[in-house]
Write a structure and sequence with these properties.
- By secondary structure, the chain is α/β, with parallel strands linked by helices.
- The chain has a single domain, classed as NAD(P)-binding Rossmann-like Domain (Rossmann fold), CATH 3.40.50.720.
- Helices cover 33% and strands 22% of the residues.
- It has six helices and ten strands; from the N terminus they run βαβαβαβαβαββββαβ.
- An eight-stranded mixed β-sheet has the order 3-2-1-4-5-6-10-8, with helices on both faces. A two-stranded parallel ribbon has the order 7-9.
- α4 links the parallel β4 and β5.
- It is globular, with a radius of gyration of 16 Å.
- The two termini are 27 Å apart.
- 45% of the residues are buried.
Length: 209
């Protein structure tokens, strides 16, 4: 499979690229600093320097790919629009390029609470995470409004650790056993496995180690 990774130079993005290559995929890594973050001579890896908000750059990168993995990051104060406007542009250019499958990363607050409202809207939700949670919510709403086959993974705290292969998931709600932590390696592993299994099409996913 040929995969395009957005946010490829971030913590999860780098692991996504390396795991995808180890699994035998062809990978395009997109970003402003990809040439300083990856070995140019790695087999099956194509580095694409581009701007996320540039329609032409994103459309060019999408040519010939089978699926998109989005590990977009940004600030936590609600001022950084990378997650929202970036997702909006990715969706628009995927439609033009006729690429239909995307798996993106959101946040825990976009999952459902027991009353089916969003966790982010609960009084008990930590207020310091609300601004970035609202950004994740808008990105998810862009996906919902699209015709793409999307999956939106909504992790709790992401730890800069490799994969253990031991994690639990749940559709649209947090996992029943939730330790509120997930290793970046396991998050990447789930996303790549989901590309093969297509278990959570048009769904959010709660995940935890």
């Amino acid at each position: 499979m040929k995969i395009l990774v957005f946010g490829a130079t971030g913590m999860v993005g780098k692991i996504l690229v390396q795991q995808a290559l180890m699994m035998g995929h062809q990978v395009k890594a997109f970003g402003r600093n990809v040439f300083s973050s990856f070995d140019m001579d790695q087999k099956n890896l194509e580095l694409i320097k581009g701007a996320l908000f540039d329609e032409g750059d994103v459309l060019h990168a999408l040519q010939g790919v089978d699926a998109v993995l989005s590990a977009l990051g940004g600030g936590f104060d609600g001022q950084d629009k990378t997650r929202t406007l970036g997702m909006k542009n990715i969706i628009a250019q995927m439609n033009k390029a006729k690429v239909n499958r995307i798996i993106g990363i959101g946040g825990l607050g976009v999952l459902n609470a027991t009353d089916n409202s969003l966790l982010i809207d609960q009084e008990s939700y930590p207020q310091e995470y609300v601004p970035v949670g609202k950004e994740h919510q808008v990105a998810w709403e862009y996906l919902q409004a699209s015709d793409l086959d999307w999956t939106f993974v909504c992790p709790p705290n992401i730890q800069n650790q490799g994969p253990t292969g031991s994690y639990t998931t749940n559709a649209n709600y947090p996992p029943e056993i939730n330790n509120y932590s997930i290793n970046a390696g396991d998050l990447a592993m789930f996303m790549l496995n989901e590309l093969q299994k297509n278990q959570y099409i048009k769904q959010r996913v709660g995940i935890s180690n």
